[in-house]
Structure formats: C-alpha cells, structure tokens
Amino acid sequence: MARATAGGPPDRGPSSHWKSPVRGPWLTSVFGLVLLVGIPVEFVTGLLSYAAYDPRLGGGPNADHGLFGLYLFNWVTSPPWLYRVIEGTHVTLGLVLVPVVLAKLWSVMPKLFAWPPWRSVAHFLERLSLILVVGGVVFEMVTGMLYIDYANRTNFYSGHFYGAWAFMAGFVVHVSVKFADMVRSLRSRRLRTELRTGLAGTRPEPFDDGLVAPVPAPPTISRRGILGLVGGTSLAVFVLTAGQSIGGAMRSLALFGTHYRTSGTGPNDFPVNYTAASVGITPAVTGASWRLVLVGARRVSLSREQLLALPLVTADLPIACTEGWSTQQRWTGAPLAELARLAGIKDASPARISALDSHSVVLSGNQVWARGSMLALRVNGADLSLDHGFPARVIVPSAPGTHNLKWVSEIVFSEPT
Amino acid sequence: MKPLRRYYGAGPLHLMGLLACFAVAAYAVTRVLGESGWVSVFQWFVACLVFHDFIAWPAYTAADRLLLGAQQRRTGRHQKRRLPEVPAPAPVPWVNHVRFPAVISAVLLGMFFPLIFRLSRAVYLGTTGFSENVYLTNWLMVTGALFVGSAVTYLLRLGLARRRHRREAGPGAVTHARR
After folding, report:
1. Quick one: closest CA in A to B138, which residue?
2. CB atoms inside a 10 Å sphere around CB A323
3. Pick from B20, B38, B129: which is nearest to A159 by CB?
4. Which end of chain A has fewer CB atoms < 10 Å from its terminal CB, N or C?
C-alpha cells in the first residue's frame, strides 16, 4: 500500500494507460533507499565544501549565506587530503546518483497524474512539497553538471547552495512521510530472490492503487534487468568520471571528466586550472623584475632568488578544485608562516594574497600558520611552469583549489586581533 | 485534535513539518531571487520540463514500442519457418541488448552535453589548456563499445541457448535447429 499518511478517500490508482509490469512500490523503494543514503552524503559534503571556502573571511565567490551560514566554522588544514576527498565524493557521487534519480522519477511517474489531484488539505500540502523534492533534485543536478563542465552562466555558488536548502526541506518531509511505506515495501520482496529471477519468472507486484499498473503488459525486462540497467549506467558514469579525482591509471579513463589529459610526463605535466595565456600572464611580468611584496608590521620586497635562499619545505599536497578533479604533487617552497615572520607578524593572523592577474584570496590565520602551507616555488624538483603559477604560488593543505593562488605578487598580513 | 484531522486530513505534526519545510524553502528562494540571471534559469527549467514531457518522453516511448514490435515480428517469423514436428529453441529476446547500450549512451549524452556539444569551448580551453573537441569522439567511442559489447553478449547467450536446445532435443533435431 503506497497511500500517503494524509487521509481522505483513496486514490483511484493509475489509469490503464500505465502498463509497465515491473513498476511497483518495491522497485521504487529500492531506488528510494539508495537515494536516502546518497542524498544526505551529498548535502553534508556540499555544506563542508562551502565551509572550506570560509565565506566569512570575504573575498570568495560565495560570501553571501544568510541564516544558512550559521554552521560555518574555521576550516581545517589537516588531514591534507580532506577537501580533496570531500569534493571528489560530492561531485562523483552526485554524478553516479543521476541515473538513480532518473529511475526513481520514472518509477513514480503515474503518481504525477493521479486523480483526484488531492484528497485533503494535508495531501495537497504534501504534493506541493513534492515540487521542492522533484524540482530541487533536478535543479541541483543540472546546476552541478553545468558548473563542472564550465557551461554555467549564473552565480553557481548561491544557486546550488540555496537550492540545496530548499531541496532538503522538501526531502526531509518526503522521507518522514514515506519512510514507513518504504520499509514495508522493501520487506515485501527479497532482493536475493529478485536477483535470481529472470524474465520468465517476472510477475507484477500485487495491485496497490498507487504504482502498479492495473492492466500490466507482458514483461519485456525483469526487475533484476531494471536494477542492472540503472546500476550499469551509474557504473559507466563512475568509470568515465571518477579518475579525475582518484588519479593514477584511472585518470585516463575519465573520458567525460574535464581534467583527464596531461601534456606529457614531465614534472609540470599535471592538470592545469586556468592557463597563463587565459588570464594574460606572460613571461614579461614574471621575469627578473618580479618581486614578492610582504606587508605586515613592516614592508618587505623579495626577489625569487631571495625566496629560494629561505629555509624551504617540501610536501606532497593535492590541488583539488570545486569541479571535483584533483591531483597530488610534490611542492617545495617558503612556509607562509616564515613569510609572516619576515613581515614582522608573530602570531596566527589572516592574510590577503593577491596575484598578477588581479585575483586575490583571503586565508585564515590557522591556514597561514599550518604545517605545509607554503608559497611554492618548485614542483616535483623543477621550477614551476608558467601555467602552474611561476614565479610563486600558494599551496595550503586541505584548501579548495582556488585558494592555491598562482602568480602571487603580494601578501598582506593583518595584525592578530 | 479531532477537528484538525477532519478538516486538515492529518495530525498536527504533519502540518508543522510542512509549514517548516515551506518556510525554509521560501527563505532560500528569496535569497536567490535578488541575484541576476536566476529568472532565466527558472524559465529554462519550465522549458526543459515541457520539452521532456511533450517531446522527449513520447519520443522514447514510441522508440521503445517500435523496438518491441520489431522483436515480436521477428520472433513470430522465426517460429513459423520451423518444421512443426521439430520443437523450436526458446528464442533469446534481443530487445534489452538494444535498450541497455541505448539508455546508457543517452544518459551520458544528457549528462555531458555541454562537453559533447562544446558549449563551453572558450572557457574550457582557457581553464584546461586543451580543446573541447574530443568529447564528441569520446561519446561516440563509448557508445560504439557499449553496442559492440552488448552484441557480443547477445551472441554468447544465443550460442548457449542453441547448445542447450541441441542437448535437450537430441541429435536428430540438430540439422533443423541450425537453420
């Protein structure tokens, strides 16, 4: 019985126009269960990813958050792979869930045309909240996919962020209303039995006045076939995208990832986020005349040679983009804390870092003073290439990729408050 | 509580939950509406719904019916050609060997169309340093591999079914079953 908790006369059930013999509450509940696990993971990783930008520091692409920013906290710098794993999970799992969402929507399609459209005020409000659930999930999927493929034309951050809250409001209500139905439906059949039942043994689920077709057509695919089709599509999506986050040999399989190619096998041949050419950086501005300006209790100007003469550190750290791709490399550079000391700053304090391409980023005090945070000068034993931020770029453990600013020209340390 | 249940149709918790849900959603929407660009996003949203429900959905439903019809006609002909005294091997339905690669390929196209149709050509080049041209080839290659893999699986299943039939029907039936 798939009737909602809201009372009133029962549905008349789907019209005889709906013929699928495999559509039914059990199948819908299987997809529902997958999403019940997957969507909260998406929400939590999304909120953490938002917190990683620490919009409270200002200067980021997503400074505006209203009441939904109340949970924000000082983003951590350890373990260094944390942001990489969170964002890789968020994007890859999000993509893998798309076929499951499509299957779930297909499985409940008769409900959209149920007649009468509502049986009581409670039922009407419930259906209204479904607009948030269905519209919300589609909105989150579409904005996410357009963003990672660089086809986004709006402020992605605010849309995806506020959209997620609206969607989750509907999601929580939907789960509360349907959870008991889902458990009951899941118990009505055994998964193991279904996986052993081929086409010849496939029978419709018992008529339930909700999803099961009143006059089902003869089956042309078994329930395990449907599960295999949806699971197989998700598997294909995983294989064809996950490599750009996981790296290694899998990267070259990510044929629908944006960063699955590298130009060769040299020390600087790993994926780039924004080429020097695309932001107008030429060797003329990064040559011998380049100076790093440090502003703190005093003002210091350093050449690249002077930076190289400082006590340098080397660390294996990832760059991980909001778009989900990431890559770990061995960076060598001057610790940001050391640069702060040179500018006369003695305690952890935020820093505004600016680049030659007029981009800038604000790092929190704990990020500036974290072990591994550095102004990188070399990568994998070689000088940084122009595309990777020569003469110097920021590397901060567990920070979103955009915080690892390239072509750095100035660091302004504020006095600790 | 009785009047609420009668006029509303559910308990007070139900009502409070839904009101809280709408309050959160309304707050979220008002924060986005002030920004430029989102009105066109909502317009696109409605356009996509209309496109899906009135064009895409009927189209793929019709395509699936055609496919099923083709399979039924073929199976019918197949059965008629046989000599009546020789039992026909149970036909191996092929329709899902078309549906599987077609659905996976279509979902990939739907998910990655901005790359496949090079909608972000300039940004993509500036961001990655590579050309976006390659994704159409990637999609065609993956689609081809899916259909070939599915066809090979079908032939294997067909071979297994024939061998089983031969074993069950005895040596006398072999020559006919091979036709």
Report:
1. A255
2. 21
3. B38
4. C
B104 chain-A contacts, CB cut-off 8 A? 229, 232-233, 236
Q: CA-nearest residue of chain A to B23?
A: A169
Is position B17 within any domain?
A: yes
Range(s) of the domain holding residue B103 = 81-169
**Do B103 and B163 lie in a common domain?**
yes
Residue of A nearest to B132 (CA): A258
pLDDT digits (tens, 9 = 90+) for B117-133: 999 999 999 999 999 99
A247-282, pLDDT tens digit by residue?
A: 989 999 999 999 999 888 899 999 999 999 999 999
Residues 6+ apart with CB under 8 A from B130: A261, B124
Tell me which of A220, A262, A274 to substitute to probe the interface with B (most B C-beta atoms closer than 10 Å).
A220
Give the nearest partner residue to A278 out of B21, B127, B146, using CB atoms.
Answer: B127
Nearest to B106 by CA among B160, B143, B153: B143
C-alpha B102/C-alpha B139 separation (Å) is 12
Band of residue A5 on the pLDDT scale cut at 50, 70, 90: very low
Q: Mark which residues 92-121 of B lie under 8 Å from A by CB.
A: 93, 95-96, 99-100, 103-104, 107-108, 111-112, 114-115, 119-120
Q: How many interchain CB pairs under 8 A, A with B?
A: 176
DSSP assignment of B132-160: TTHHHHHHHHHHHHHHHHHHHHHHHHHHH
Q: What is the pTM of this model?
A: 0.92
Picking from B124, B126, B122, the residue whose alpha carbon sits closest to that of residue A274 is B126
Measured between alpha carbons, how far is residue B132 from residues A239, A256, A273, B145 in Å? 20, 11, 15, 21
Residue B155 falls within a domain, yes or no?
A: yes
The answer for residues whose C-beta is within 8 angstroms of residue A188's C-beta and 6 or more apart is A25, A26, A205, A206
- Amino acid at the residue A12: R
- Residue B91 in domain: yes
Q: Give the tens place of pLDDT for each residue, A137-171.
A: 998 999 999 999 998 877 788 889 989 999 999 99
- Point out the residue among A146, A154, A233 whose CB comes nearest to the CB of B38: A154
Do B29 and B86 reside in the same domain of the chain? no
Task: Say which amino acid occupies A253.
Answer: L
Q: Minimum mean pLDDT among A128-137, A408-417, B85-94: which range?
A: B85-94
Distances (CA, A) of A371 to A314, A316, A393, B90: 11, 12, 16, 69
**Residue B173: pLDDT over 80:** no
Question: In sequence order, which ranges of A82-155 are alpha helices (DSSP H)?
Answer: 82-107, 109-112, 121-148
The predicted complex's ipTM stands at: 0.92
Asked if B127 and A273 come within 8 Å (Cβ–Cβ), the reply is yes
Q: What percentage of residues in chain A have a pLDDT greater than 70?
A: 95
Do residues B161 and B85 both lie within one domain?
yes
Pick from A16-25, A375-384, B3-12, B168-177: least confident: B168-177
| Residue B136 domain-assigned (yes or no) | yes
Strand (E) or helix (H) holding B14:
helix B12-33
Six token digits for residue B34 = 């002030």
In chain B, the number of structural domains is 2
Identify which of B47, B132, B126, B18 has the alpha carbon closest to the alpha carbon of residue A357: B126
